[in-house]
């Protein structure tokens, strides 16, 4: 009977670890690819929202916002999707510029960005106001939609 030498168990453990890492590599690459694709979709949704707000594109807003959408505003508190869109249609909320100042921070289905915002909001003219905007997304019917927007003055 052969005796097990000291290095045999160590070699077996190292071999097992290297095989498990090699076997999981394709799964890790798939996860990384999916995460990068999801982050790209989130950034595109954020850009589409800003464009729709500046251009008063109500059909685009209707499509981007979930039915149970809420916005937490600085002056008006919490507004539903319908209330916010009515305020945009009546020019109570009129974005003229939204300028991103830093790279958006994405965490899961949430994006947060520091921006300079210009426009007229509930009768108050605003020029280059610093705001922190956090957007939470939800997937409905295989499509990402905006569930919630939180706006804070900085």
Automatic annotation (TrEMBL):
Q: SUPFAM superfamilies given for it?
A: NTF2-like
Residue ranges constituting the DUF4440 domain according to the UniProt record: 42-106
State the source organism's domain of life.
Answer: Bacteria
Which InterPro entries does the UniProt record give? DUF4440, NTF2-like_dom_sf
Q: Which Pfam families match?
A: DUF4440
* UniProt name for this protein: DUF4440 domain-containing protein
Q: Which organism is it from?
A: Actinobacillus minor NM305
């Amino acid at each position: 009977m052969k005796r097990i030498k000291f290095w045999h168990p160590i070699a077996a453990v190292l071999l097992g670890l290297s095989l498990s890492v090699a076997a999981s590599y394709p799964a890790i690459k798939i996860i990384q690819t999916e995460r990068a694709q999801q982050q790209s979709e989130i950034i595109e949704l954020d850009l589409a929202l800003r464009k729709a707000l500046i251009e008063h594109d109500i059909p685009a807003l209707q499509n981007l916002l979930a039915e149970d959408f809420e916005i937490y505003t600085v002056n008006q508190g919490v507004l539903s999707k319908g209330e916010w869109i009515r305020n945009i249609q009546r020019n109570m909320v009129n974005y003229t510029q939204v300028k991103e100042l830093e790279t958006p921070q994405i965490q899961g289905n949430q994006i947060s960005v520091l921006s300079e915002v210009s426009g007229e909001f509930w009768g108050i003219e605003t020029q280059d106001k610093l705001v922190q905007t956090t957007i939470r997304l939800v997937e409905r019917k295989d499509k990402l939609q905006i569930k919630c927007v939180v706006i804070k003055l900085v």
